[in-house]
Amino acid sequence: MFSKPLLWGLLLLAGCGGRNTESNVDVPGDQKPVKDRLLTTGADLLQSKGPLRYFDAYLDGFHFYNGNIRAQMEAHHYVQQLNQDVYQAVIFDGNERDAKLMGVEYIITEKLFRTLSEEERKLWHSHAYEVKSGTLIAPGIPLIAEHELMKKLVSTYGKTIHTWHTDQQRDLPLGSPMLMMGFTRDGQLRKELVEARDKRFNVSTAKTRMNRQDIRQPTPVAGANAWEQGAVRQFVISSSADSAIHKHQGAPQNKAED
Prior knowledge:
This is OBAP family protein. It comes from Dyadobacter sp. 676. This protein has 258 residues and is of the alpha+beta class. Helix content is 26%, strand content 22%. It has one domain. It has helices spanning 4-13, 34-46, 110-113, 118-121, 128-133, 143-153, 191-201, 205-211; strands at 57-65, 68-81, 86-92, 101-108, 125-126, 157-162, 178-181, 234-237, 254-257. A 6-stranded antiparallel barrel has the order 1-2-3-4-6-7. Strands 8-9 form a two-stranded antiparallel sheet. The N and C termini lie far apart (42 Å).
């Protein structure tokens, strides 16, 4: 198996596999003035990109709104590995210049997931089916490198929050953030979404699935994918003075409810 530095080096050296998926919406507003374009160019040349430079892996997959599996969308993840057990990702609705930042995903290994409380686990989904089904891909990298990456991700868990619902044609980030989930079995993900993605990337999910037969599919740890047992958690905007916010220092003024 590749070491972490070698694997991530292969990801960096490979092509990006992108620039083929436009954003779902155009934002309202006037054209960027020349002065702003000059400032942006100057900042690009002179300022450090800091943590952005280290989001060095690109994954493409699919999410649905927790509590509404019919509301499905493609999600473009740009991922940073923080250590052996924790990853973080920024999620866009495309991979071209005008892509809109839809949300974030935090990814942890099974070892860390087992340390979570029963209630916290209900906010997370497993990645086992996404990997084994071939619906989660890493476009543009060599097949052997992608295979090794998926062997690492198959037993991980993700906590995903979308803040801009461009799949609903919202041209501004309106409404409440939403907790997202991942698919867990055949027949859940709409076929046309996968077919459209495969055509754009010139890949075959069916062949990818065949190539991953040797990857062991772990049984999800109890508590993950809680929506399957009817334990749905979702964010709502609340103005209540006794909101659950007061139980969490620094938490945003939203609470998760059934």
